[in-house]
């Protein structure tokens, strides 16, 4: 299991542990992360915390790759970025699955984006793959939202296979 997978498992376990109500007397006994996750006003707070928990992956990129990573996340004039696609995916899942789906999409986006941002001659993820995955996610959101978890797992499996082949 890679670092991002460990982080996702940890955060999901943390969320499960933090679902009970907290009284004022219990607050001082709880960890800051539990409080932050439990009382997060939006998923963006969780997203920032996840990115902070393993910044080495993105920080290891050179300046040019970081610019490509930002483009992957934000998108451009003629294509949607991972953030917009992820937001649309999360918007279509049931409320009880939103946080876990957001975390999974964020982690997957970091893995895909970091690899795609590398020089063309060394990367394992191509622009064609991005287009295919983005199109598949868009189609699933629009036509078969019940299949979202299955499609995400398929993409994760493909990414795992591609990244495992690195030398």
Order of helices and strands: HHHHHHEEHHHH
Number of domains: 1
Report Rg: 17 Å
- Count every helix, treating DSSP H or I runs of 4 or more residues as helices: 10
* DSSP strand count: 2
Sheet having the most strands: 2 strands, antiparallel
Q: Outline, from the CA principal axes? A: globular
Mean pLDDT over the full residue set: 77
Strand-pairing-aware structural class: mainly alpha
Strand content: under 5%
Oligomer: single chain
**Low-confidence segments, ≥5 residues, pLDDT <50?**
8-41
Residue share in helix: over 70%
Question: End-to-end span in angstroms?
Answer: 17 Å
Side-by-side strand order of the widest sheet: 1-2
Could you walk me through the main structural features you see in this protein, from its secondary elements to its overall organization?
By secondary structure, the chain is mostly helical. The protein has one domain. Helices cover 70% and strands 2% of the residues. It is built from 10 helices and 2 strands; from the N terminus they run ααααααββαααα. It has a two-stranded antiparallel sheet with strand order 1-2. A hairpin with a 2-residue loop joins strand 1 and strand 2. About 20% of the residues have low confidence.
